[in-house]
C-alpha cells in the first residue's frame, strides 16, 4: 500500500491516497481514500465535540465523493473525515474496468479494511460509518459482519430494499441469480431520464457550488449487469433477515417518493430513486437502536436538497451527533 497522500481534485484541505487491492479478472484494482482533517486546536481552547472520532463515508451507485460541505460538517466538530471511492468508482475507476461491477458486496470488505488501515494512528478513536444509498447498504452489511468495529452508523437514504417491494424482491431473486450465474455481464434494462441529476441542479446552492465529474457520475447512471444486481438483491435479502448491528443507527430519508416518469417540480422535493416507505421499514431490521429521520422536501441525497431542507438535514445530523457524543462520553 502506498503511504503517499497527494492533493485531491476537491482542492485546498483535501488529500487522496491510492489503496492497491491486487487484481481481479479485469486487471489491477485500487480504491481511493480522500481525507479532510480538522484544524489544529489551540492549547487554551475547549475540546471539540468529536475530537476522538474518525468518520468513513461511502458513496452510492454511479457516484463518488465530492461533497465538501459534508466533510466540513465533521471536521468543524473535531472529527477526522475520510471518504472512500470504492473499486471501479470515481477516482478508482480505470479505463479497462466495468464501472462499479462486483458480484458480491462482501468484496468491499477489502476496500474498507484498506481504508481503515490507511487512516494513520487510530488508537482510542471511535469510528462512525456514513453511507449514502448503495454505500449505506454496503456499510450496513459490513457493520453486521463486524459488530464491534463501529461506534455508530449513519445512513443517508440507504438502499435497503428493492424498489418494487419485498414481494417483488422475493420473486425476482432466483431469476436474477440464475441469469447472473449463466451470463453475469448481461445488461438489465433500466430507464433513467437523468431527472435526478436535473433535480440536484435545480436545488443547488449558488453560494456553495458543487462540481461533478460526468465521467465519474454520469447523469444517466452506469449500465446495470445481472451479476451486480444479484449482489444487490443478496444484500437486500440479508437486511430482510436482520443484521444485528450493535451500534446505534441514524437513517435520514425524504418524507416521500415520486416516480420519475416525466419532469415536474415534485422531482426536486422528493426521493426519485427509492421508495422511502419500504426503506424506513427495512431500516428497523438493521439493529436494536435505530432512529429514522424523515425530511419533507428532501432529495434522494438529503444533503443535496434545496437550501432550507439541507439546513434541516444538517440540524438533525448535528442533534444526533451531539446525543451520540453525550451518550458515549468517557466510554
Task: Describe, in short, the structure shown.
With 331 residues, the chain is α/β, with parallel strands linked by helices. The protein is built from eight helices and eleven strands.
Throw out a few tags for this protein.
331 residues; alpha/beta; Rossmann fold; nine-stranded mixed β-sheet; two-stranded antiparallel sheet; 8 helices; 31% helix; globular
What this model shows, in words?
The structure is a single chain. The protein has helices at residues 68-75, 108-118, 134-145, 165-182, 195-203, 226-241, 276-283, 307-328, and strands at 6-7, 15-24, 27-36, 53-58, 80-85, 126-132, 152-156, 187-188, 224-225, 249-254, 290-295. The chain has one domain (6-328): Alpha/Beta hydrolase fold, catalytic domain (Rossmann fold, 3-Layer(aba) Sandwich), CATH 3.40.50.1820. It has a 9-stranded mixed β-sheet with strand order 1-2-3-5-4-6-7-10-11, with helices on both faces. A two-stranded antiparallel sheet has the order 8-9. It is of the alpha/beta class and 331 residues long. The model has no long low-confidence stretch (mean pLDDT 92). Helix content is 31%, strand content 19%.
